Amino acid sequence: MMEYVLILFIGCVAGVVTGLIGASGVMVVVPALVILGYATSDAIGASLFIDTIASLVVAWTYYQNKNLNLKQGIWIAIGSVGGAQIGSLISPLIPDVGLNSAFSIFLVITAVIFWFRGAKGGAPDLNNNVATQQSSILKLLRSNVIISGLLLGILVGIISGLLGAGGGVMILLILVFVMQYSMHEGIGTSTLIMAFTAASGAIGHAISSNLPLKAAIYGAIGTLIGGRFAARFANKVNEKVLSKVVGGVFAALGVIMLIAR
């Protein structure tokens, strides 16, 4: 019984992470379940199931605060669902070859980006000289929202299926820096997209019998509590503070993953 109490707590922590920064709780759930004796593939399956519930709860909270916009994000969602199936199918075939370290470094870099974004006061001014000098790649992506959304979504989905994450970090980056969403809208929308991606990946793992349902359900109950509480808090702070919170949490998670490897 103590095992499931711990999983309930793990789910609660994962929900807080998702509610605050719109990211998957994979960096909390997968290592914790592996320590409890679950196979990595089973831990990834459970993580995707828990991510699905956390994302739906958090997305609903952001929707209630009018911080959810699927106008452009829907194409990322569609692409990510297909990509997650591909990732979940090849996940059992790929050994851990520095993936955790690479993802940790990615989180730290992302943390720096969001921290400085918060320090500069939120969304960039599209009329200033920096905006006019944006790269040709970003111009191309922004001028072809459907195609770029689908392609980026497929990439996010594949990585999600491989790592057991809903892809929240990558989706948030795309929405904020490519699609030019505000931080609140970016987090709210990324969590809804992440719900579709994670659900697709969880189904893939269930088909391949890599989903410990009882552990996943206990974790999901915990994430309901943590996700709702954290999302309500995040919607009360301003854009500048939220960017710094996102940056700080990303940095902490990245460092923890590097130390714990």
What does the model show?
This protein is mainly α and 261 residues long. The chain has one domain (2-260). The protein is built from twelve helices and no strands. The chain has helices at residues 2-21, 26-35, 40-64, 73-90, 99-119, 129-132, 136-143, 145-163, 168-178, 183-207, 213-234, 239-260. Helix 4 (73-90) runs parallel beside helix 8. The two termini are 28 Å apart. Keywords: Cell membrane, Membrane, Transmembrane, Transmembrane helix. It comes from Mahella australiensis (strain DSM 15567 / CIP 107919 / 50-1 BON).
Shape: globular
Number of strands: 0
Succession of helices and strands: HHHHHHHHHHHH
Number of helices: 12
**Low-pLDDT ranges:** 122-133
Describe the main β-sheet briefly: none
**What's the N-to-C terminus distance?**
28 Å
Into how many domains do the coordinates divide? 1
- What structural class should be given to the helix and strand makeup? mainly alpha
Strand content is under 5%
What is the gyration radius calculated from CA atoms?
Answer: 17 Å
Helix content estimate: over 70%
Mean pLDDT: 77
